[in-house]
Amino acid sequence: MFAVLGSQGQLGRDLLAVLPADTLALTRADIDLDNPETVTSWFATHRPSVFINCSAYNLVDKAESESEVAFRVNAWGPYALAKACRAAGVRFVHVSTDYVFGLDEDRTTPLAETDAPGPVSIYGLSKLNGEHLVRMVDPTALVIRTCGLYGLHGSGGKGGNFVETMLRVAGQGKPLRVVADQHCMPTFAVDLAWMIRDLIAKSCTGLVHAVNDGATTWHNFAAEIFRLAGTSVDLTPIATAEYPTPARRPKYSVLSTAKLQAMGISPRPWREALSEYLALRGTKSN
After folding, report:
1. What is the rounded distance in angstroms from the CA atom of residue 75 to the CA atom of residue 64?
2. I need a surface site. Which of 4, 33, 270, 284 has the fewest CB within 10 A?
């Protein structure tokens, strides 16, 4: 039996769709990562075969002023989960982020799992600490890094995703200024869910990058959204310095999928995934 924490979130709901029907759909009411004692009490009465954690504190800018809660949820909570899974003989899968990188702004080649991380935000640091704690206590755990995630169910804590934000603002007739010097790999949550399922089926462990294929910038991602949606927008590329935020973002988040592909999993191109997303949400797609 599988268990998914964060089951009502953007990735969690797509995971439930590809996992067995008897998968336990867990929410904060079941396990609150801000309160590790709830981990102990839950595992006292449950023992799934695989536990997937896709719950996180993902308010990137707010984390700069709420570092304690970010670390409790993103580092100490996963640590408690990994300890409980290890003790119970449960396979643990933990979802992380490209934000563990960012320090090397001059990078131009894809980042492999073996490359040294260097977060530039509290959020990224808290997620990196979570990775280290999970892998320290449970070397058999599977830690999956992804990037630019968007899904049909939005991101609960953020109230949407990048695609929906772009379409909403465009629908209001407002001009858009989007950074063109931050490189990313947009990833459809449905595709990530399938990749996670396949990695589990292959009994993979350790650190793996799982993203849709191909790199772009946030500006070009926005331009492709509007092209596929058949929407005319006043879209201007800008530099990161022109759009200051409380938290710094990685300027280069292109993750290598060589390890993923060596396991026999070939992610589809991000443009193809985006086209399907727009079609599924009812938007006209070319």
Report:
1. 15
2. 284
pLDDT digits (tens, 9 = 90+) for 34-52: 998 999 999 999 999 999 9
Nearest to 134 by CA among 73, 195, 72, 92: 92
- Give the model's pLDDT for residue 160: 80
Amino acid making up residue 28: R
Which candidate in 79, 123, 150, 277 is catalytic?
123
Q: Determine the Cα–Cα distance for residues 253 and 100; give it in Å rounded to an integer.
A: 9
Tokens of 251: 């300027």
List of residues 6+ apart from 136 with CB closer than 8 A: none
User: How far apart are alpha carbons 100 and 36 in whole angstroms?
Assistant: 23
Nearby residues of 187 by Cβ (< 8 Å), 6 or more positions away = 146, 147, 148, 149, 150, 210, 211, 212, 270, 273
User: Alpha-carbon distance 241 to 232, whole Å?
Assistant: 26
pLDDT digits (tens, 9 = 90+) for 215-265: 999 999 999 999 999 999 999 999 999 999 999 999 999 999 999 999 999
Helix axes 162-171, 218-229, angle to 10 degrees: 60
Coil, helix or strand at residue 172: coil
For residue 39, the surrounding DSSP H or E stretch is helix 37-43
Give the burial string for 15-44 (b: 16+ CB within 10 Å, else e).
bbeebeeebbbbeeebbbbeebebbeebbe
**Residue 65 token pair:** 């002023």
Q: Which residue segments constitute the domains of the chain, with CATH numbers given?
A: 2-161+187-212 (3.40.50.720)
Active site residue 123: yes
> How many CA atoms are closer than 13 Å to the CA of 220, on its beta-carbon side?
13
| pLDDT tens digits along 107-128 | 999 999 999 999 999 999 999 9
